Amino acid sequence: MAVVYTLLVLFLAVFVAGFILLVMGAINFDFSNSEIPPGVNQPVKLRIIHIILISRAVVGKILENIGICSQVSFVRYMQDRKTPGVDLKLFIKDLLFEKVPVRIYQPKVPSACQRRGVMFFHGGGWVFGSLETHEKLCRSIARESESVVVSVGYRLAPEHKYPAAYEDCLNATIHFMKNIEHYGVDPARIIVCGDSAGGNLAAAVSQTLAGRSDLPKLRAQILIYPGLQALDFNLPSYQQNRGVPLLFRERAAFYILQYLNGNASNLEDVLEGSHIPIDIKLNYRKWVSPDNIPEKFKVRGYKPHVLLDSTTEVYETVKRFCEPNLCPLLAEDAIVQQLPESFILTCEYDVLRDDGLLYKKRLEDNGVRVTWFHLEDGFHGIINSFNTDWLSFSSGKRGLDNIV
Q1: What CATH architecture is 82-403?
Q2: So what family is this one in (predicted)?
Q3: What is the pLDDT of residue 30?
Q4: Catalytic residue list
Q5: Mean pLDDT throughout 68-87?
Q6: What pLDDT sits at residue 95?
């Protein structure tokens, strides 16, 4: 019995040591491919968060390889573990809008007039994120702006491919608009808002509703470091911030491919720009081009990228990248001209920075009023880190204050 016990202890020790070595090896590999520029806000904190995220992903991959659960399921589980308790200033309720899970945050303090209504779509690359991951952010927006916030728990990829997430957000928004009287919200003050992939969904929903005469007109759209196109992953910000946490250039392309097809088999073609035929790229170059990025954003080491053509086979798998419901930056001028007043937040050290800058220009060129707030020391995901105890970022709080 003693021998069996000793062997068991040895086995566990070897297993744990191997497990730790695997995790540390993956972290070192990711470190070698990552970079935190000198201008990033509170770099040590960012590095710690990066280590936590890498470790979580590696453990998930190990669990997937030994058949316990998928990596995606494990990461989602870890993200959703913590939910804040009762909020003394808000009524919080979970409901279904057209079979779509939503969480409503309503201020308890009585209001002399109807409130503002905010439809919020969470980020997470269409693959991750949930009502729980953005709970603190939605609570803060509801409290600080004294608004009714509706957070939408849309379906995620790769299980639910495009246009599932877009359709859920659109249907939930239309349901809210049609039942506005139940929530004490002014129909003239409805806003769509989202971060990252959620910013993409907010922009797409806003465009779809722009031409609807049977519904209230949106008051505004709030786009927080949105991803808005998949034609060019070699814009200045994609080159400059390719290895800056929390979103690498490769991961940005990977996520939108997961949303589109449920796989990333054409990842290399997308990254090098050989997924869209040259004639189509040239057609959209008036909107998606480094020429439309102000020169001051190109000084950190941008090199013009050679236009590459695409094979018919590759293009067939990704041609829906040209649909505005997936890539809102490609909407026609006639749609863009009808869009509501817009707030766009960008971060200097974010691969998606230029998507926001290009959309800002498109809106302004079409007569839409834009408020632009740029975090010079910010990185992708910083807004959701505004209130994470000792890992909080002052720059994230500053961004949130401007959103409010």
Answers
A1: 3-Layer(aba) Sandwich (3.40)
A2: Belongs to the 'GDXG' lipolytic enzyme family.
A3: 55
A4: 196, 350, 380
A5: 91
A6: 98
